[in-house]
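Quarterly update from the structural biology core.
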Amino acid sequence: MRYNLLCIDEIGVTKIELGSILKNLNINIFNVKDLTEAVYMFRDSKLSFNAVIWVLNSSELDNLDYIKELKYKDDFKDIPVIVTSKFTDKKYVVKAIQVGAREYIAKPFEETVVLQKVCNLLGIPYSKAVKKNMEDDILTFSFSEMFNREIKTAGRGGYSLTIMLASLSTDDLEKDGQQTVSEVTGLISKVLKTKLRDTDSVFSHGTNNLIMLLPFADRAGAECIKDKIMDIYETNPLIKQKSEGYRLITTSVSYPEDGKIKDRLLEKLEEEMDDLLKIKEPT
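Predicted structure, tokenized:
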């Protein structure tokens, strides 16, 4: 079964953080900035959402009242809500439950806690999810751990680091709902891991996204790598066969050219991808 989570986060970073943790599950995460966009996404996308992730970025308790407003809407009244926030005082947890949230997950995320609570809410066997994560990550770090390490190393060494996001997209909602999208994304990931430099890292993130860490690559270097990825996507026989009807969209940000703060870089990356996804392929 394929699961869709709607993340309401004005900053947009949480989608990437959760995507790296839930990458081995058949979960797609969509991000909107506020309640109005959430209602628009739900009604116009024709997608069925299994849960809402409400990100509390402000210390104001009253902001949790918007969850009550969300739950009053017929479209959302039966959809479970998970609140996530760096504010962990008991008063926030109590208020979240009072306004209708089912779970509260503290930041920074602990992978086992996220997996356990999300799996429990969606009815996914937790032991199976943990086993898949262990098998996939036994020889590498999670994206968050690797990113923290690489950005610190780049800062100390005085070199550039590019973070690249690639998304497999289609204007055909029926096709996007098929299992094929995760299969194609997985195939692209495997091919890229053999074709990119030894220093580069490729992580699955959701069912249709890949996120890459590219040390020693500035903006100009990132453009060369982007061209290489698109060439692989368009010429690899197996990828061409499997990806018919899809398009691969890529964008990137570079440290320190686009900023030096990790969360701001991820936010900029997410915003640029959102803008690109709004542009439909010419007919």
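Confidence is low (pLDDT under 50) at residues 134-140.
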